[in-house]
Every structure is written in structure tokens, then in C-alpha cells.
Amino acid sequence: MTFRSKAFEIAQGRVSPVLTPPAEKVADLYGSNTFSDDVMRTLLSAEAYTKISNAIRSGSTIDREVADEVSAAMKSWAISKGATHYTHWFQPLTGTTAEKHDSFFDLTIDGKAVEKFKGSALVQQEPDASSFPSGGLRATFEARGYTGWDPSSPAFLMDNGAGGKTLCIPSVFISYTGEALDYKAPLLRSLVMLDKAATAVCQFFNRDVDKVTPTLGIEQEYFLVDKALYYARPDLLMAGRTVFGHSPARGQQLDDHYFGSISPRVNAFMVDFEFEALKLGIPVRTRHNEVAPGQFECAPTFEEINLAIDHNALLMDLMQKVGDKHNFQVLFHEKPFAGINGSGKHNNWSLSTDTGINLLAPTSKPKENLRFLTFLMNVVKAVHDHADLLRASISSAGNEHRLGANEAPPSIVSVFLGKDLTAMLEELVSKGEITLEKGENFYYKLGITRIPHLQRDNTDRNRTSPFCFTGNKFEYRAVGSSQNSASPMIVLNTIVAAQLMEFRKEMDERLAAGEEKKVATVEILKRYFTESKNILFEGNGYSEEWIELAKKRGLSNISATYEALHAYISDKTVHVFERMGILSSRELHARYEIELENYIKKLQIESRVIGDLALNHIVSTVVKYQFKLAQTARSLTDLEMLEEAEPIKEIIKDISSHVVIIKRLVHEMTESRKTANSMEDLLEKAKFYGSEVKGYFENIRYHVDKLELLIDDEDWPLAKYREMLFLE
């Protein structure tokens, strides 16, 4: 029995574990493992609680006395729940989370054991920064770096799987010289600037608004593969995706998996990780089968954006840990399987005021609709003016496989508003009037009396648009499933904040010149629409016609990651990021280098995996199988069964032709990789990897996948698509 067939036998024998639901109601379970506001209110003095609450709401500084009191309360709470260690939990530019655990246990000067956690340890830790990506911000021998407590994201307890728990403290990560080495630090800066800019614009419409908070709901797509079959695929293990694999006869063409009945084993996994997520204060609400077989999705309730991004990063880690218990490997790669849909992370973004208003929700009141239009058009203008930067923010080696593949938005950044909103904006330009009423919804008449009338919203959803308006929010659909959502949200927050400041500046100038407020607002919005309307598109973003139309409109269509990333260091980007105080030119160039290096390394690993599998797994297996066929053909020939031997000889020839080509292509790819590795210039190396080295991948795959159809099923060394994707 081959390793693959043994792995398949193990996978087929899996049964769903019996889950015992928690005794608490979900509402009581929610946040039970977080150092929440309720916990702080209970454990802290009134003065300390007020100071920490003010710091969270307004960003005021937390003094050392308060930090000492919070750390003591946090230690007491964590230990009471079984925690033995604490860590600053941060998000370096690796795309994953990081942590360094320290024990509460310590010894006094006279050798007595104590449990200690001071305010200084809560506020700051010092992980080694030399081994994290820095993009040249510091030399490798300069090891010092700092993590700093982010009080706006609650500390939480993570089960370490060995009977103990660790207190995790969400933190920023900076270099010794003060530059950001993570996603959180610039995200927090962008939130401050967006709040400032949006609140200033809100003041034109409502003086009661003192704060604007961006909200985010992240839909997370993923695949599940049985652990045994995962380990039977070295490419999944090493590269996160299958570099070979012939499409099965049945894939997703019947559309029968989407929203289909969830299998008991998968459902048990979902229920388990949802309970664990709820304990951590992650408000997961939705679960369902996605389009591709073996693909699923979960989604939370909308949250403040910093918390939403922390929760998504934590959720991905949690899903992997719970997956282990259920003998599943969770795949977050954007395209783990060829021929079926890949996975994305839909970021649903909106703006809310402290008075309870969603600034991107149309209403039935003309004054409020003018406010809605103001924010809507400023977002559209920001996306129009910085489309290439927004495209760069979701660029990666994994997402390169997915974008524009008739399953995800294309590389062309466009905005979908829906025909009603677009018509209304056209009317605003031509007549200077706003006629949209929120209440103007239609009802479907089904002709079935027992079914209630179904209400149709005044906006549609366009799944082919990378940036679409969906009624009261914008959905950025192009984000990759493995990506940290902070990257595109930093960009979106920053460009919208900068645009709102420009709007405020022009409004102030017009009002100072004596222009009436409504007239000034409408005139500016009319110009914004005229300047930005070429990015608006209502049709099929997958079509060839759109590619041609976008070209005529002057919109960028940047398909290669190494080309898209350049927007990070353009003069326009550096100007807006430095002016807004989000990232310096030095930090932007560092991130550009980090992303290029990551792109190169991913392709380098894939190339090595392809060469290794092709020669050491596929060709060696095929040669053995050829020998069996040759013996059979020879036996038939000896028996003078020449006609019967001929088809076998043809198969041997077909196999040989593919083997010869595979060996030649692997050799050429290896030499190409050596050429790339000798290049000093990072961009030139990335270009060479993205065009020359990567150019061999599909050609080698074609011939390997042809061999999969020729070799006996029992002899094929790799777990097949039908085994991995259709496992219940």
C-alpha cells in the first residue's frame, strides 16, 4: 500500500468528534476569556477605570500608576482562569502573528517563589527584532525592538493546548529607532487621522458629532483538507498550494456545494471554533459552504476596525488550532487548488459617529442625504485618485493566482455604486438636485399568497467589482484570504482621511468667501463626480469588454505583483502618507522591499517544490510504472499478441514524451532560478522570478497532470483532487 492510499484510508475513516456544548448561553459565554470592559470595571478602582476608558476612547496617555493597577488586576484575573504566562501579541510584517511568552513565576532575592507582573511588563516588552522583516530599517546585528501595549484592543487568554493558558496583550511593534515594524502601529495612526478628518466634515452637518469610528466586517474564506492527505501533499505543506493536480471530473460546475448542507464532520469543526472564538470576544455569526468543494466561509458582526483586524488575525490562528483537534488542515492560501475558485477576505468598511449615525447610509431626509453623498463621493474620489495604491495593498504571490480569474475581482480597480445611486449622481451634476429617498424600495410579487412580500433594496451587489457599495458600506472584495487586513485598511483609511481634509479645506475657503453651505457642498461634489466617474462601473468586471473599456478610460490594469507594489514608493504615496503622519518615506520604502522579498521567496519555494516533486516523486514513480508496462508489452509480443501490445507501447511512448519534457523544463527552470538568485537589484530579481522562473510553472504542471491520467491510480504518489476536495 502506498503512503497516499494509506493516508486516504485514514482520512476516510475519520469520524466527527462528539462535542459537548458549553453550559452557558452564548451571550454569557461571549468574551469570557477577554479582559473586557466589564472585568476592568469590576477589578479596577473608579479612578483607574475612568483613566483607562478615556485612553481607549480619546487616546490620552496612561500613566505608570494606572498601568501598575491594570497589570495587577490583569494578572489576578488571568491566574484565576489558569494562565501561567503572559505575552505581548503582535503582528509583524511576516503576515502572521508573533508572541514571546514570559512566566508570571519569579524568585525573590531570598529565593521565595512569587507571581509577578508589573506595569512596566504590561506596557512594554523587548522581543528580538533582528529576525523579523525590516526592509533595511536596521542591520541584522542590531537586535533591539519594542512591543507596546494597545489598550484599545482587550487582552485575552489563549489555551496553549497543554493544559495551561497564556495572557495575550495586543501590542504594536517598533524598531529601536522608532519605525513601525508591524501593521498595527500605522493602522492606529490612520484611525486617528480618519477620525479627525471625518469629524471635521461632520461638523458641517451636525455639531453634536465628536468622534467618527471606521467599522469593519471581515468575511473569511478557507479550505479544509484532512490532515493525513495534507501530509501526503508536500506542495501543500511547503508552499500552501498544490503545484500539480489534474482537475477531477466533477468540480464546482454543478454549483451544488455553495450554501449546501454542511457535513457533520465539518460542522463539528465549525461549532468548536465558533465557541472558542466567542470566548475570545470574536463575534462570529455566519457559517456556510462556499462555491468550491472543500471551501467554506465564516463572518463576524461588524466591529471597530482595529479590533476587527486583531480578531481576524486571532481567528485564523484559532481555526488552525481547532482544526488540529478535528484532524483538519485549514488552508488560507488564495489559490490552493487549480481549476476551482480560490479564497478571499471581503472587507466591509463603513464610518459611524458617536451619535449613532452610519455616514454611508442614505436616508429619507434631504439634509442627511447631502451628508451621505458628501462622504460617499469623498470615498469614491479617494479611490479614484489612489487606485494603484489600493491595488498594491492587496498584491501578493498568492493573490496573483486569484485576481482576474473569473472568480475574484480583476486587477482593475473600479467602484460599483448601483444604477440608482449612479443615476442620482448624474442628476446632481445636471440639475444640482438630490432625489434619492431611502424608502423607495420595491417589493417582489411572487404570485404565491402564503409567501410574504420580499423587499428589494435600492442597491444591488456586484461580485465582480473589487470595491462595491452595498447599501450602507463599501466592500473591498479583492483582499487575499491569507492577508492581514490591516494592509488595505491602512491605505483606505489614509486616502479617505486625506481626501476629507481636502474637502474641508475647500469648503472653508468657499464659506469664507460668502458662499452658501449647501451650494458650496453640491458644487464640490459635482466636480468630484465629474473627475472620478471613469472609475465607476456597473457591469461584469470579469468580461473582456471591461478590460478594453477600462483601457480607454485610462484605468490601470496591473496584473503582476512586482509592478503593483511600486505604488508604495511613488511620490504621490509618499506625499500623502508623510503629510498624514502614517508612515515615513523610509518606512514605505522598507515595506516595499519587504513585500518584494516576500514575493521572491514565495516563488523561489514554489520553484524548488516543483522541481523536487517532479523529479523525485513523479518521474521516479513513472519510470517504475513504465517498466511494468514494458514487461507486459514484451510478454504479449512474445506470445505474438502484437495488436494487443500496441496500445501499451503507445502509452509507454506518451509517458516517455512527457518525462523528457518535464526533465528539460525542470532543468531550465533551475538554471533560470540560479540566474535570478545572482541578481543584486531587488526589483529586477522580482521581475525575473515573476516572468521567467514562474513562466515554467504551468508548463511543467501541464505535463505532470497529463501523467496523472496515464499512471495507474494505485501507483500515483500524490493525493488527488477528488480525494482532498470531496471528503466528508
Automatic annotation (TrEMBL):
Any idea where the GS catalytic domain is?
Answer: 183-618
Q: Which SMART domains match?
A: Gln-synt_C
Where are the membrane-spanning stretches? Answer: none
Domain named GS beta-grasp is located at 84-178
Signal peptide range: none
Question: For this chain's UniProt record, which GO biological process terms are given?
Answer: glutamine biosynthetic process
Q: Which family is this protein grouped under? A: Belongs to the glutamine synthetase family.
Record-level Gene Ontology MF annotations? glutamine synthetase activity
* Pfam families, per database record: Gln-synt_C, Gln-synt_C-ter, GSIII_N
Annotated InterPro entries: Gln-synt_C, Gln_synt_N, Gln_synth/guanido_kin_cat_dom, Gln_synth_cat_dom, Gln_synth_gly_rich_site, GS_Type-3, GSIII_N
Supply the name of the protein. Glutamine synthetase type III
